[in-house]
Amino acid sequence: MVQNVHPHRDPLVTPVMRNVHLHPAEQPTGRNRATHWLHSKRLDDMLSTPFCSHIINYEPPRGFLVPKFSTYDGTNDPFNHIMHYRQLMTLDIGNDALLCKVFPASLQGQALSWFHRLPPNSVGNFRDLSEAFVGQYLCSARHKQNISTLQNIKMQDNESLREFVKRFGQAVLQVEACSMDAVLQIFKRSICPGTPFFESLAKKPPTTMDDLFRRANKYSMLEDDVRAATQQVLVAGRPSRSNAERNTKPPDRPKPSDRRQEGPSRPEMPPLTPLSISYEKLLP
Fold this sequence. Notes:
elongated; 51% helix
């Protein structure tokens, strides 16, 4: 009795390679062949790597643990992801092979599929990998704003200094490289004139953004203290509820008997003299 002998399933052999050893009766045909080929091609992409041999053969340091990255799926700014990745890999920033080998662990979805579709032996260092990554997802990058956009930021009447400084600082991060003096001048024109902080900037202009925000924080704390003290004064000057009810209670109305007693005294009427004739004779 002849038994069917299945080919050896080597885990390193891809489905495309295994098809070579299939018996003709086992070969997929027609529509199934096209579907099978697509699945095999996709699996081949997942098993391939763009790294050069020295990165593939590199062994991470003993005890190394892969950091918990915020995985990138291709929809956010690639520059931000590179900064996030390097920040978590700070202790190994000089180990180029390790930076390359761990990088796929920070990808997911279509970004991970893109990585496995890179040509073999196309990545020899982290610089090459970073340039390919940024070039692929450059359309998702946030474009820097011109410095002229800062001129549209004005301090509102009901806005505290702390809130405005935070809003202005976030806008500065979105601006392309520019002169620090220009940023400081725009900030000075954006705040309300006549305030203590404005006068401080006029007397001694800041030299750096760090100096500007440090002094702004100092005056923000002073502004908060003044606001808190003013609130306490308003609360202390407000009458309590019991006092307010006592003060607004209407006065007692005098009783009718008291009103008669307290009213002006009327003169007593003299006694009436009785009539000596009848009403018929008195009236015409």
